[in-house]
Amino acid sequence: MSDQRKDYGKRPASRDTGARTQYDKPYGKKPYQGDKKSYGNGERDYRRSNTSKSYEGEPRKKGSYSENNGYSKKPYDRGEKPYDRRRGRDEQPKRSNEPAPVENERDEQPYLLIGRNAVREAIKSGRSIDRVLVSTEHDGSLGEIVTLARERKLVVREVDRKKLDELCMPFGHGGKTANHQGVVAYAAGVTYCEIADILDAAKEKDEAPFVIVLDGVEDPHNLGSIIRSADCAGAHGVIIGKRRSASVTAAAVKASAGATEYVKIARVVNISAALSELKAAGLWIAGADMDGESMRSAAMKGPLAIVIGNEGEGLSKLVRDNCDFLVSIPMHGHIDSLNAGVAAAILMFEKKRQDAE
């Protein structure tokens, strides 16, 4: 048996050219096979594959390997160099502690005024308007709006109603266009003011400051409705938040029926800090809450700020704690809550009723 054993140390030359082949190398050394990695002492080749098993017997996960996180589903991509085991840990790229930017956190300013009331009041208040688009069919108050616009020497263009429908489509509901009533105006965005400007407006009128604060009202139609009620109730201004709150968009302007042209609107980063500023100016803070004191017995005379909470969750805990007292609206039916815009209007006029006593 041993006499018939072949000698694997030497291989015959190629039959075609007589050149030596890779098999002429000793059996213990393997030819170069690319960038394959070997682990251990080189006796075996533990090749990475998605089907091979790890040392603990668990199947390997698909994805790339990083020293810090193990196997991950996505490759390491943070805009910096990946972890390199040859560098010390002190030399590794540092991760920033700053929060990631929030997408779509742009300041939404209205570029359209939609509806007859909104356009009429904007023209009468002297607001900067680029041009007015009206339907070719003039009826009712539409002719009055066109006359006012031309008296102010504004650009007035007659367009087909379908064109107006296309412009107002993003501001509608349920796939329907917003009710433009045959007129749309391109105008500059609403200019937000400071809280001090609202307090100065009350001082100029020699009146006790009356302010509406919105804590997370997200529906632009509710926002517009509250601004409209604030103007009718004689409030000196409305304060809204920059985060998790509706801004004064075209839909809010239309819902306000043009009241955004007369009511001062302040936009703040922190509602609680705004309440502290109002307290320092001598205002009492009343939060609208179902568990609060009845508005009929609550003292709402004098300098006051009414805080309206989110449509679904109401006042946030921090804002609630910063209120001086809570007020509620008596309910007599089967539903125990009101729309935010309706509740705000009721409380505003209850405050004015008490002032008149």
Structural notes for this entry:
Helices cover 25% and strands 17% of the residues. With 357 residues, it is α/β, with parallel strands linked by helices. Among the domains are: 112-187, Ribosomal protein L30/S12 (60s Ribosomal Protein L30, Chain: A); 195-356, Alpha/beta knot. The termini are far apart. The model is unreliable at 14-20, 48-55, 63-73 and 95-110 (pLDDT under 50).
Secondary-structure topology with pairs:
Blueprint (H helix, E strand, L loop, with lengths): L63 E3 L3 E3 L39 E3 L1 H9 L4 E7 L6 H10 L3 E5 L1 H8 L14 E5 L7 H10 L5 E5 L5 H13 L4 E5 L8 H6 L8 E5 L2 H10 L3 E11 L9 E5 L8 H6 L2 E4 L11 H17 L1
Parallel strand pairs: 4-5, 7-8, 7-11, 8-9, 10-11, 10-12
Antiparallel strand pairs: 1-2, 3-6, 4-6
Helix pairs in contact: 1-2, 5-9
Strand content: 15-25%
CATH class of one domain, named Alpha Beta
List low-confidence stretches. 14-20, 48-55, 63-73, 95-110
Shape: globular
Oligomer: single chain
Put simply, the count of helices is: 9
Report strand order across the widest sheet: 9-8-7-11-10-12
Whole-number mean pLDDT: 77
Biggest sheet features: 6 strands, parallel
Helix content, binned percent: 10-25%
Strand-pairing-aware structural class: alpha/beta
CATH superfamily of one domain: SPOUT methyltransferase, trefoil knot domain
* End-to-end CA span: 123 Å
Question: What is the N-to-C succession of helices and strands?
Answer: EEEHEHEHEHEHEHEHEEHEH
- Quantity of strands, as a count: 12
Q: How big is the Rg?
A: 36 Å
Instruction: Classify the fold: give the CATH topology of one domain.
Output: Alpha/beta knot
CATH architecture of one domain: 3-Layer(aba) Sandwich
